[in-house]
Design goal:
Elements: E1 6-10, E2 18-25, H1 32-36, H2 42-50, E3 59-63, E4 70-79, H3 86-100, E5 105-109, H4 119-132, H5 143-147, E6 155-159, H6 163-188, H7 196-204, E7 212-216, H8 218-224, H9 227-233, E8 241-248, E9 257-267, H10 287-301, E10 307-317, E11 329-331, E12 337-339, H11 347-362, E13 366-371, H12 376-381, E14 386-390, H13 393-406, E15 410-412, H14 417-420, E16 430-431, H15 439-448, E17 456-460, H16 483-493
Parallel strand pairs: 1-6, 2-4, 2-5, 5-6, 9-10, 9-13, 12-16, 13-17, 14-15
Antiparallel strand pairs: 3-4, 7-8, 8-10, 11-12, 14-17
Length: about 500
């Protein structure tokens, strides 16, 4: 991957050289320290010339500005002061990174007329810089030519009112950012490189952060009776794996919070094979599992005072001569039988056994599963919200609140007995698809049959984890969606 930018914090002082960025609220007034960096008011003239008003992440750039030795002086709008929230600060950081271009030394003067940025807000700018700077260029051999980027990492010095406190806030923000980038790396890796075994090895690396990691193979899963998960894997020559990650940062007897991820490293659809067009994107069908690894990284790296459990099921869905067929009936770990109507509805089969295993063995406070589960959720919500299904109003409300704060938004969709009937079948306890209508809902109804009464939420991230629109903080194909959302959920409600 590209080299990470360096983020540092310092007291206010007038920079001598390099690229300088000042932040401007709506109305276009500079703070006193920002004004010191523009002694002959070149920005004021530039604002008038382009009708700059300080709208959020709008940008004005002056090259080799008169009255200084700077290479570039850039103003970035922060919008209305009353609208400044965590998402806005991240976007501002993203705009800073974009404005830096090829600069190696960037000073950001966080002196905003009418608002003194808190240490956490200053750190959020750094996180925005970190997330925007990410590029997946691991396999490019002509990086400068193809990407227009230098290999040298930029240094961003953020001047603020309390740099010491900002550094402490940055330690936590950077841990979360590393979790997001870990998830992005996993989703971006091609399937010939990242199979179930290799993915499990990536999860095992969390042991360096103090996470306890157990890897289960096919033999162990057969012994547990995971016929639903193993049925998906049987068409591939690459053996399945399950990774169980435990972070014990809370009280010794406190029940863990649990995150479960679908990890289909490549999904051809199996015998119910997908069309060829766009199938290359199915390397990202493990976006849920990637997010789980990412959030476990974030929690461990920032030493979260919570007990957290991450479980991912890693398989490849291939149309081999040994692959399961439409019409096959498999027995899940729960003992419930499933008629496989469509082998491309495979993710719910993987999750069914993971949910039952998690609930039966660890008895968590709640379970949240993430999965790039259905195309139907993209039809319903597009790429700006993940679909949320839950048997717990409290958990759903907390997830929604965390989504609004972080910008990783969710939208709750219904569950109900009427939809449950659509997955009944005369041949087994249930079938794995209810047909075209309400496709995301029937998938959730299927999963609900494996959670008992434990508070549970299902996040369908098919539209948000991969191929989502470019934003101020995510410019690549993989977004790392879910890491910041779940980390915030834990921080706000489940840490001691």
């Amino acid at each position: 991957m590209t080299e990470r930018p360096t983020v540092a914090f310092a007291k206010f002082s007038t920079p001598k050289k390099g690229t300088v960025v000042v932040l401007v609220p709506e109305g276009g007034k500079l703070g006193s320290h920002a004004s010191d960096a523009d002694p002959v008011s070149v920005l004021g003239r530039a604002f008038s010339a382009v009708d700059f008003t300080g709208k959020l992440v709008s940008t004005v750039e002056v090259l080799a500005p008169q009255g200084s030795e700077y290479d570039r002086l850039t103003a970035i709008g922060v919008g209305k002061l009353e609208d400044l929230n965590e998402e806005a600060w991240l976007k501002i950081g993203g705009a800073v990174a974009a404005a830096a271009k090829k600069a190696s030394d960037v000073t950001v003067i966080v002196d905003i007329a009418g608002h003194e940025a808190s240490p956490k807000e200053a750190a959020s700018i750094g996180l925005g810089v970190m997330l925007r700077s990410y590029i997946f260029d691991k396999y490019k051999t002509r990086k400068d030519e193809d990407n227009g980027k230098t290999s040298k990492s930029a240094r961003f010095t953020i001047q603020c009112a309390d740099p010491s406190a900002a550094r402490k806030a940055w330690a936590s923000a950077e841990a979360i950012g590393e979790g997001v980038l870990t998830a992005r790396d996993l989703v971006n890796e091609p399937a010939n490189i990242l199979g179930p075994v290799e993915f499990a090895e990536k999860a095992k690396e969390l042991e360096k952060l103090g996470v306890k990691v157990e890897i289960l193979g096919e033999k162990e899963m057969k012994k547990l009776g995971m016929g639903a998960l193993l049925g998906v894997a049987q068409g591939s020559v690459r053996p399945p794996r399950m990774a169980v990650m435990q972070w014990n940062g809370g009280k010794s007897k406190e029940k863990p919070v649990a995150f479960i991820g679908k990890g289909v490293v490549f999904d051809t659809g199996g015998i119910s094979i997908k069309p060829a067009g766009g199938m290359e994107d199915m390397k990202g069908d493990m976006g849920g599992a990637a997010a789980v690894v990412g959030v476990m990284h974030a929690l461990a790296a920032r030493k979260a005072k919570a007990n957290a459990l991450g479980i991912i099921g890693l398989v490849e869905n291939m149309p081999d001569g040994n692959a399961q067929r439409p019409g096959d009936i498999v027995t899940s770990m729960s003992g419930q039988t499933i008629e496989v109507i469509n082998t491309d509805a495979e993710g719910r089969l993987v999750l069914a056994d993971l949910l039952w295993y998690c609930n039966d063995k660890y008895k968590p406070q709640f379970m949240i599963n993430l999965a790039t589960l259905t195309g139907a959720v993209i039809v319903a919500l597009g790429h700006h919200h993940a679909g949320l299904f839950s048997n717990s109003d409290e958990l759903a409300e907390r997830l929604s609140a965390s989504g609004k704060v972080t910008g990783e938004k969710v939208w709750r969709l219904p569950l109900g007995k009427e939809y449950d009937k659509l997955i009944d079948t005369k041949n087994a306890d249930m079938k794995n698809t209810g047909g075209r209508a309400a496709g995301s809902i029937t998938a959730a109804q299927f999963l609900q049959r494996f959670v008992k009464d434990t508070p549970w939420a299902h996040l369908d991230v098919a539209g948000t984890a991969m191929a989502s629109p470019a934003t101020e903080i995510s410019q690549g194909w993989a977004s790392g969606y879910g890491v910041r959302l779940l980390d915030r959920l834990v921080a706000d409600h489940y840490e001691g």
